[in-house]
Amino acid sequence: MQRSRAKYLSLQSYADSGVVISEYGPSSSDRHTFSTIFNRAPRRFLLEFNKKGGDRFVIWGDPDVFHTWWKTTGQQSDYPNPDNLPALNQSGFNTSSLAAKIPTLLYGKAPLLSDFANFTDLTMDGTEDVGGRRCYRVVGNTRDVYAATNKEVNVRKMTVWIDAESLLLRKVVEQWKAPPGEIRRLTTTFEPQANPALDVARFRFTPDTK
């Protein structure tokens, strides 16, 4: 996991696409899709989350400001430097926790609320193929921690699949305790690219005002 963190910090550009599957209750599940592109210098970022049912949430940034837009409300929020952290820190719910995963590794030196910040008790649990790629499987526990009181909440088991060659994350599964006969699990899969060539036009986003 430490080598993977270092890899993300070394990337000059990054792109991915993927799927989030949320399972809950006795047998219910929702499937969402997403994509991310990132350039370190000059800074550019775009995360688009497409929720089951047609909702959409987008986070995008340039060297001066980060923005968010939510289709349901039609509201755009702007976060100019240096107060741009809320663009990611306040977007976990609207992105099924995507904003708390890969972006926090790409911007690993920033004080972002990350699903990996309190990822402890790690053990190597062998290797496994994900999408035809050999991956290291790392198992541990994670939680959210209130800074003022150190109170731990949202405790869950987390398993991470790290590509053995690229060291990029291919899959993350989070599982919470649930009543008997029910399940509460979030599975996020990634198709990542390290240092792709990205046209600046791909980072342009105009909110749908219709």
Can you tell me about this structure?
The chain is mainly beta and 210 residues long. The chain has one domain (2-188): outer membrane lipoprotein receptor (LolB), chain A. It is 9% helix and 50% strand. It contains 3 helices and 11 strands, in the order αββββββααβββββ. The protein has an 11-stranded antiparallel beta sheet.
What percent of the residues sit in helical stretches (DSSP H or I)?
Answer: under 10%
Taking the sheet with the most strands, its summary is:
11 strands, antiparallel
The N- and C-terminal alpha carbons lie at a distance of 43 Å
Structural class, from secondary structure content?
mainly beta
Please state roughly what percent of the residues sit in beta strands, choosing from under 5%, 5-15%, 15-25%, 25-35%, 35-45% or over 45%: over 45%
Question: What Rg do the Cα atoms give?
Answer: 17 Å
Task: Extract low-pLDDT stretches.
Answer: none
- Mean pLDDT across the residues is 96
CATH class term: Mainly Beta
CATH third-level topology = outer membrane lipoprotein receptor (LolB), chain A
Could you say which overall geometry the principal axes of the C-alpha atoms support?
globular
Instruction: Tell me the strand order in the biggest sheet.
Output: 6-5-4-3-2-1-11-10-9-8-7
Query: How many independent structural domains?
Result: 1
Let me know the number of strands. 11
In oligomeric terms, what are we looking at?
A: single chain
Total helices: the number is 3
The name of the CATH architecture is Clam
Q: What is the string of helix and strand elements?
A: HEEEEEEHHEEEEE
